[in-house]
């Protein structure tokens, strides 16, 4: 089979080595004669898998001891509800920074549980979409927390600044589409959450990293399966966790460690993004509408100057083994998602194709 590169935004490409290992041990995991997804989550064998995955994740992100790592259900959108249900306390207000589609969606969901003070962080720089620096965000005094999304998967907008608002501001971040892609100072955050289906593993698993002093404050109406305190007390096994996704995430963490960890990924991700944005910027045929400082290294949306060619581009790219390049319906155009599992050669295959397409259709 010819090599296919999958640019899907999520569920997204997984490392080929990981898939091969999962395939090899699918029917007979660890000499047990069954697959890992057929054994009890409470048995010793699975608990070892679960603990090892957590340990590897802790190593990769240097997660401090005073943080719990939760392996949950419910996806990013589940956390849009879980965050206010766990953290609102008596404040009744939380700050929500609006930098794109997902941040806005989080604020909308939170509205069911508290009053979100929406901080519009969007601006333009030379006509390109940008995010105001954190120093210009107008925080609300007494707000329960500040929520933002460091990587907007649809808009292709990143906020790379490290939050430094002081100890009395609890920062919550939706890292769904950028976790493990570059180093991250966990200690600056109260809660970090991420759906697994982009940089971690298959859909169905959601990671939550929560500082311990934030536990014990959940709203009485918070469903137990979303309650950080209940999940922490039960080692994420209050109910049956997504065991296969947890196992596979563990394989991805091992793969990441073998590749040199998050710092090594950061370097490759930088190279991949520079290559792709370079081709876009050096042409009048393609364009990206995000200012340089806020360009995502994970999700690269781009438009063809002549949108009448969109369908041809998608058809030809698919035939060339470059899959899932169609932009999100709310943005249109194209989008290449280039998470950790996408190798540099995949991005090179895409840029070669783009340049060839331009020569033939430009
Ligand atoms: N946040 C971000 C940044 C996302 O990209 C997504 C999904 N693409 C979500 C939240 C929602 O995640 P889920 O579909 O797992 O609920």
TrEMBL record:
InterPro entries: Aminotrans_V_dom (IPR000192), Aminotrans_V_PyrdxlP_BS (IPR020578), Pser_aminoTfrase (IPR022278), PyrdxlP-dep_Trfase (IPR015424), PyrdxlP-dep_Trfase_major (IPR015421), PyrdxlP-dep_Trfase_small (IPR015422). The keyword Cytoplasm applies. It holds the Pfam family Aminotran_5. L-glutamate binds at residues 9, 42. Its cofactor is pyridoxal 5'-phosphate. It catalyses: 4-(phosphooxy)-L-threonine + 2-oxoglutarate = (R)-3-hydroxy-2-oxo-4-phosphooxybutanoate + L-glutamate; O-phospho-L-serine + 2-oxoglutarate = 3-phosphooxypyruvate + L-glutamate. It is found in: Cytoplasm. One of its GO terms (cellular component) is cytoplasm. The modification N6-(pyridoxal phosphate)lysine is found at residue 198. CDD domains: PSAT_like (cd00611). Residues 4-350 form the Aminotransferase class V domain. Gene3D superfamilies: Aspartate Aminotransferase, domain 1 (3.90.1150.10), Type I PLP-dependent aspartate aminotransferase-like (Major domain) (3.40.640.10). Keywords: Amino-acid biosynthesis, Aminotransferase, Cytoplasm, Pyridoxal phosphate, Pyridoxine biosynthesis, Serine biosynthesis, Transferase. Homodimer. Catalyzes the reversible conversion of 3-phosphohydroxypyruvate to phosphoserine and of 3-hydroxy-2-oxo-4-phosphonooxybutanoate to phosphohydroxythreonine. This is Phosphoserine aminotransferase. It comes from Shimwellia blattae (strain ATCC 29907 / DSM 4481 / JCM 1650 / NBRC 105725 / CDC 9005-74).
């Amino acid at each position: 089979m010819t090599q296919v590169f999958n640019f899907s935004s999520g569920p997204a490409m997984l490392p080929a080595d990981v898939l091969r290992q999962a395939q090899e041990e699918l029917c007979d995991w660890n000499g047990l004669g069954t697959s890992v997804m057929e054994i009890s989550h409470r048995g010793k064998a699975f608990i070892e898998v679960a603990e090892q995955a957590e340990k590897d994740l802790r190593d990769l992100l240097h997660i401090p001891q005073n943080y719990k790592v939760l392996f949950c259900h419910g996806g990013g959108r589940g956390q849009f509800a879980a965050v206010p249900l766990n953290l609102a306390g008596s404040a009744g207000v939380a700050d929500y920074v609006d930098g794109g589609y997902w941040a806005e969606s989080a604020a909308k969901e939170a509205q069911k549980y508290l009053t979100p003070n929406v901080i519009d962080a969007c601006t333009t720089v030379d006509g390109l979409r940008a995010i105001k620096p954190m120093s210009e965000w107008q925080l609300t005094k007494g707000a329960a927390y500040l929520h933002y999304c460091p990587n907007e998967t649809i808009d292709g907008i990143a906020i790379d600044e490290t939050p430094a608002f002081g100890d009395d501001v609890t920062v919550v971040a939706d890292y769904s589409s950028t976790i493990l892609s570059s180093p991250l100072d966990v200690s600056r955050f109260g809660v970090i959450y991420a759906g697994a289906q982009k940089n971690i593993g298959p859909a169905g698993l959601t990671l939550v990293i929560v500082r311990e002093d934030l536990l014990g404050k959940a709203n009485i109406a918070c469903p137990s399966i979303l309650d950080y305190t209940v999940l922490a007390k039960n080692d994420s096994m209050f109910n049956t966790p997504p065991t296969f996704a947890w196992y596979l995430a563990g394989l991805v963490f091992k793969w990441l460690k073998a590749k040199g960890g998050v710092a090594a990924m950061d370097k490759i991700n930088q190279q991949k993004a520079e290559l792709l944005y370079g081709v876009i910027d050096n042409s009048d045929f393609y364009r990206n509408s995000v200012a340089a400082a806020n360009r995502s290294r994970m999700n690269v949306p781009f438009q063809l100057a002549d949108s009448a060619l969109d369908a041809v581009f998608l058809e030809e790219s698919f035939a060339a083994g470059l899959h899932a390049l169609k932009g999100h319906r709310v943005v249109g155009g194209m989008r290449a998602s280039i998470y950790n599992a996408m190798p540099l050669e995949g991005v090179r295959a895409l840029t070669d194709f783009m340049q060839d397409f331009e020569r033939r259709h430009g």
